[in-house]
Amino acid sequence: MAHLLGIDIGTSSTKSLISTTDGNILATATATHPISMPRPGFSEQNPHDWWNSTCQSVRSVMHKASISPESILAIGLSGQMHGSVFLNKNHEVLHPAILWNDQRTVTECDMIESIAGSKKKLIQAVGNPALPGFTAPKILWFRKHKPDLFEQTAKILLPKDYIRLRMTGTYATEVSDASGTLLFDVNNRKWDHAFMRKLHLDPSLFPDCAESHVVTAELSDTGAKELGLQSGISVVGGAADNAAAAVGNGVVQHGHLCSSIGTSGVMYAHSEVPEVDPHGRVHTMCSAVDGEWCIFGCMLSAGGAFQWFRNQLATFEFEQSKTLNQSIYTLLIEEACKIQPGSEGLFFLPYLAGERCPHMDPDARGCWIGLTQRHTRAHMIRSLLEGVTFGMNDMLQILRNMDISTEIIRLTGGGAKSNLWRQIQADIYNSPVTTINTSEGPAYGAVILAGVGADIWPDIQTACKAIVIEKEKLNPSSDRSVLYARYHNQYTKLYQALSSQFRSIEKI
C-alpha cells in the first residue's frame, strides 16, 4: 500500500503525518524546537533546530505507523510564513532566522512604502502593506545591521523551503509562501523582479517558484538517510501554514472560511479573485489552489497567549498535568467553564507580541483591564479566551465589510479542541461554526497537496470533497451574541484608548 507524508514546520514544533492514499490518517508525531527572543520585539530560531525536529518527527511517525520507507509515494511541506533564512553559497546558515512575529523592522517598513511610492501603491503592487512580520523588511534590516553577513548571502529561503533544501539539495518555493514576502506579484503569481530591483535586491537571491501541488524535487540520498526514508521520493511545493491549513480543512472554494487559533490567530477566506482591502488591514495572497486566492487576517498572539498563561501563571498545574497524563489546557478550560460569559467585566487584550491585524501596531501590549477583588484565575482564563476571540472577530468583520462570503466557518487549531472555546467563537462571530473529521490542519493539507502532486487526485477541490467531512455544527446563542456584541464594542474602545499609551511605554 502506498502512503503520503506531510510535514509542518511550526513555530514551536514540527509535526509529521502519514496517511493512506484515500486520506486515512495512520499516525502523527511532533517534535519541539526552541524560540529565542534576545531583545524585546525580537523573535528568532535556529534553522538547524527545524531540521532536527523534522528528522525526529519523521522517524517517530514512521515508527508509529509501522510502514516501510518504500511505501512513501510523495511528501508535502507546510511551514510558518515570512521567516528569513540567510544562506551562503555552501548552503550554510549565516544568522538565526528572523520570524513572522518579530517586530524590529518598523523603519524598514516605512522605507519600503516610500520606495513603492505610497502604502496604497504598495498594496496595489503586491496585495499588502509593509508589515514588520513580512520577509522584505527583514532582508533590509539584515543588510543594514549585518552588512558583512549580507555580503555573503547567496540565497534567502522561507522556513519550509530550508527544510526542502536539506531534504533534496534543491532551492524552490511555491506561490502561497512567496506571497508573504512583499516581493511577489500576487495577481500574476510570480516574483516581482522590478520591485526587487527598486529595493536593490538581486532576484537571484530567491528560489524558483511553483504552484503548491507541483513536484519541485526528489528526496536526496543524504536527506533520506537523515530522515530514515528512501531516496527518490517526490517532494511537492507544499504551502504556507495558513494556506495548507485551509486545504486540510477543505476551505478551497467560494463561501468557505477557516478560523484557526494556533500560536497566532488566522481568519482565512477563500476567493476566486484577488480581492484587496485598500487599507491593508487583511492580506491578499495566492492560495494553494491553482489560479485562486485567499484573503486573511493574522493576529500575532492567539493560542500563544494561552500558552504564555500556562507557562507563567499555571506552572504548578502544568507539572501536575504531566504526572497525571492530562492536558493542562483541558484543566484550565474546566476552570473557565465556571464563569459566566463576559467574565464579569474583565477584559483581556491579547497583544503580547504587538499586533498585525486589524491593528498594524508593533507597540501594542497585552493586558487585563477591569480586575477587581471578586475576580479569580478562572475569570482571567475565560477573559483570555474571549479576548482572543474578539481579536478574531475584528478580522471577520473586515472580511464581511469587504463583502467576502463567509457562509461556512470551519474551526481548526487549539481553539477547535475545546467545547467552551468553540461555543465562544460561535457566539462572538454570531454564526454557526463547524468542525471536520480531522484537526491536523497544515500537516493534513500538506498530505493532500502531496497526493495531488502524485496524481492520486486530479485537483485539490476533488481531494477535499472526497476526504474532508464536516463533523459537528454549533449554532450561536442569540442572547450571548447580543451580550458579546456589547463587550466587543468595549474591547475595541479599550485598545483605542490605550494605543497612544502603548507607544509611550515603548519609549520609556
Count all strands and give the number. 24
State the assembly state of the protein chains: single chain
**CATH homologous superfamily title of the largest domain:** ATPase, nucleotide binding domain
Write down the overall geometry. globular
Unreliable residue stretches: none
Query: Proportion of β residues?
Result: 15-25%
Structural class of the helices, strands and pairings?
alpha/beta
CATH class of the largest domain: Alpha Beta
Query: From the 3D coordinates, which CATH architecture of the largest domain would you assign?
Result: 2-Layer Sandwich
| Helix content estimate | 40-55%
How many helical stretches? Answer: 18
Arithmetic mean pLDDT: 95
CATH T-level fold name of the largest domain: Nucleotidyltransferase, domain 5
Number of domains: 2
Our Rg estimate from Cα atoms comes to: 22 Å
How far is the first residue's CA from the last residue's CA? 63 Å
Task: Profile the largest sheet.
Answer: 7 strands, mixed
Pfam family, one: FGGY_N
Site (Important for activity): 8
GO molecular function, one term: ATP binding
Keywords: ATP-binding, Carbohydrate metabolism, Kinase, Nucleotide-binding, Transferase, Xylose metabolism
